[in-house]
Write a structure and sequence with these properties.
The methyltransferase is composed of M and S polypeptides. The chain has 381 residues and is of the alpha+beta class. It has nine helices and 24 strands. Strands 2-12-9-10 form a four-stranded antiparallel sheet. A hairpin with a 6-residue loop joins strand 5 and strand 6. The relative contact order is 0.12.
């Protein structure tokens, strides 16, 4: 196999056909996702609704690079069907100037670790938000270029792998949707009485003084009911607060600032000894009346998060709103019998186990295509 190393500027040409924006006309703008995740095709809008940037026609079958996110792999391909789209001056669209070039091959190269590293080096800046890809620097980059049939062979191989990965991701999304739907049906549709959360749980605080010569395992709570996690192990000298609060197994823990995003969790044995700030209240649950796992599932319902928004207080509608413990405890919980709770929790736990397995397969299937892509270009470099 013969591989040439060709300058981008010798193989591709920047194509920019300016658009004279009419405030009353309709335009379909694009964006580019980071990590080579493809084009974003936004809904059509009027010229008056476009940003104040300059706009250009997007050529079909072109390589499209975000000049402000190239360092993060924001590169995509506009296909044959991508017509009548516009791109702002933040996006560089390149078309081939030589016959023996496959645009998708170039895209795969810049989506590889080696290609993304090259894009990063061509995007100087002191901070991520200020890193801009220079046109001259991009066009000076070198790309390993085998013959056109070999390019097409590599593209077909990698496209198949990424298509399989996409199917696996769709399976994960479907599994997540199934669990959410089942949770909603089981928790909301069971025979129940409504009980105030304040009758089922109460705040408990276990203050621990922050001493400079001690270490602290700090915790956080993920959004969307995804659980508690250990964040950092920090010396007391690196913590500004004078007090932190210990977490014990069985605690209900939530993030006051992001309760509206489902930031509720149940602590397990592995979380014993973690500490949280005052932004993460801890509550004990009356297990004679409600299973902690049932309460966790109920707090994972989006309909509950909607109610949390209305109970939160702060300066803006969402981003700075905090849910006080007193407000949380006013929520009404649809409470079935303990036997019914056990049945509901058992069914959802089986679904969770399946979801974990599906997610694990997705992680593996996601890793394989990128590893294959890197292997292809490491052999050509």
């Amino acid at each position: 196999m013969t591989v040439q190393h060709v300058r981008v500027g010798d193989a591709l040409r920047l194509e920019r056909r300016p658009v004279q924006v009419d405030p009353t006309a309709q335009y379909s703008p694009i964006g580019v996702r980071s990590f080579a995740k493809g084009l974003i095709r936004y809904q059509a809008c009027t010229g008056a609704e476009l940003s104040k940037l300059r706009y250009f026609e997007l050529p079909a079958e072109s390589l499209v690079v975000s000049n402000i996110k190239a360092w993060e792999g924001a590169v995509a391909v506009a296909g044959k069907g991508d017509v009548d789209l516009v791109a702002s001056n933040r996006f560089l669209a390149y078309v081939p100037v030589i016959d023996d070039l496959c645009v998708r091959y170039i895209w795969h190269y810049f989506a590889s670790d080696a290609g993304t590293t090259a894009l990063s080096k061509a995007s100087p800046g002191s901070a991520d938000r200020n890193r801009t890809l220079g046109i001259k620097a991009f066009e000076a980059l070198s790309v390993p270029l085998p013959s056109l049939p070999e390019q097409q062979e590599y593209v077909a191989y990698l496209d198949r792998l990424f298509a399989m990965s996409a199917q696996s991701e769709e399976a994960t999304n479907s599994a997540v949707a199934v669990v959410a739907s089942l949770r909603n049906q089981l928790v909301r549709n069971s025979d129940h009485i409504e009980v105030g959360l304040g009758e089922l749980a109460s705040q408990v605080q276990r203050p621990r003084a922050v001493l400079p010569n001690e270490t602290f395992r700090t915790a956080g709570v993920r959004w969307y009911g995804e659980g508690l996690f250990e964040r950092d192990v920090l010396p007391g000298s690196a913590i500004e607060a004078k007090l932190l609060y210990e977490v014990k197994p069985g605690d209900l823990v939530y993030n006051r600032l992001f309760a509206w995003k489902g930031s509720f969790a149940l602590a397990s044995k592995s979380h014993d000894g973690l500490v949280v700030s005052s932004e993460f209240p801890t509550l004990r649950i009356d297990e004679d009346r409600v299973l902690p796992e049932f309460l966790r599932e109920w707090l994972a319902l989006p309909s509950v998060w909607d109610r949390v928004i209305s109970l939160s207080s702060g300066g803006t509608p969402t981003s700075r709103n905090r849910l006080k413990v007193e407000a949380l405890l006013t929520l009404k919980v649809p409470l079935p019998s303990l036997a019914a709770q056990r049945t509901i929790v058992a069914r959802l736990e089986r679904c969770r186990e399946t979801l974990v397995a599906v997610r694990r397969r997705t992680e593996l299937s996601d890793a394989l295509p990128q590893a294959a892509r890197n292997e292809v270009f490491s052999k050509l470099d």
